[in-house]
Amino acid sequence: MGESEKSQVIQGAFWKFAERIAAQLVSLVVSIVLARLLSPMEYGTISLVMVFITIANVFVNSGFGQALIQKKDADSLDFSSVFYFSLGFTGLIYIALFFLAVPISEFYDMPILTPVLRVLAISVPIMGINSVQQAYVARKMQFRLFFYATFIGTAISAVVGISLAYAGFGVWALVAQTLTNNVIDTIVLQLTIKWKITREFSFERIKSLLSYGWKLLLQSLILQIYSSLRSLLIGKFYTTEDLSYYTKGNQFPELISSNIDTGINTALFPVMSKAQDSIERVKMMARKTTNFTSYVMSPILIGFMAVAEPFISLLLTDKWLPCVPYLRICCIILLFRAPQTAILQAIKAVGRSDTVLKVDVPIRVFAIIILCISLQHSVYVFAISEIVVTLFGTILYAIVAKQIINYSGSEVCYDFLYNVLMASVMGVVVFWIGRNLPFHPLSVMVIQVIMGTIIYIVMSILTNTSSFFEIKMMIGKMLVKHKKG
């Protein structure tokens, strides 16, 4: 990976990460305030409706956007064609949701679902427009615009939601908050990006982009259904308390990993797509990304495993300590995200969206078999079974990576397991410190974090780890640039 490409990926990942963190921090504050003002039933209504909206948005956000980014010579005609097609397609989805609202509300015996679903479904056509804008921004590597649009939309929607909640609008405060966020985000992007809608359309361009995008859309749909299935099964066959501990245990590691993963995904895919004619360059980018991402993520996830008990005790009180095993299991699973992400983006970048689907289908079939077996035992076994699924998926991705970009399994293992091993040594020491210090949990956690950081940095220097020195150099450049500014 060249210096300019590396810089593009890092800067893009930084701005995407900053966007997600800023949005989620504001959303966290808003959710706390709204939780005090609204009833659990009102939150439950929105949660139920959002299941249908989320599934509908899979058809909006997956496929065409990535096809536009991947296409080498995408022009105004491509973007305009996708814009008009998305507008028409999402309009049909809205009409379907509008008429399905009544039978859905009757099925759950909740009349309020009908108007709420019909109003909230307006977000689907809005997101259809937004998905084209985001594809343009990603293709042009203008990720700073994501940050501005998301932050402004989140902040304004927070004011709207809290104000309406205080005024006694109940569930409609949450509806207004969601819609305002989507509308403002879309308006800000439209005002800041250079691309403007033109009056041109081509069915041929749509067919070309659809041949690439429909496989990614189907893969995203399968993933969305599978991600919901685990929680539904726990809620069905075990207790609501088990589901709460499982969900809460997954929440914090996923929050950290998804933000970093989303940032790298968003920045890496367009850069790889530009280099799609050179398999060797794509492979080098995949290797560099695997190594760099695992170097950053491994100490965070393994360190999180080590400080899990004082962290949960401080943040959620001791009554939530049963979620600690699930948190640690989730951290182990997410360690494999680095190679999977890099390989997935490389496969998509060279135009092999068909392979993405062919790999994911056997993974999900295997996962359902494992789930059915583990479901007969306990929630812990059920959670651990996902580690087996993740290992199986990583092996399949490595096999495909060798076939498509000549990225061998031994190279994949070397690029991320070395960092995992180094972080594990640090994690053992940090865990031992936590077990043997008779202090307040906050003091213990602070000492653990400081010692873990020192140990990891020292090991990086002693082993001459390239990613450490790259990060050091980037920080140095940023400081110099800041001083000059």
Automatic annotation (TrEMBL):
Pfam families registered for this protein in UniProt: Polysacc_synt_3 (PF13440)
A single cellular component GO annotation: plasma membrane
Membrane protein topology class: Multi-pass membrane protein
Main localization category: membrane
Superkingdom to which the source organism belongs: Bacteria
Transmembrane segments: 21-39, 45-69, 81-104, 116-133, 145-169, 292-314, 382-400, 412-433, 445-469
Keyword Zinc in annotation: no
UniProt KW keywords: Cell membrane, Membrane, Transmembrane, Transmembrane helix
Annotated compartments: Cell membrane
PANTHER family assigned to the protein according to its UniProt record, in alphabetical order: LIPOPOLYSACCHARIDE BIOSYNTHESIS PROTEIN WZXC, PST FAMILY PREDICTED COLANIC ACID TRANSPORTER
Family note: Belongs to the polysaccharide synthase family.
Name of the protein in its database record: Teichuronic acid biosynthesis protein TuaB
Organism of derivation: Blautia obeum
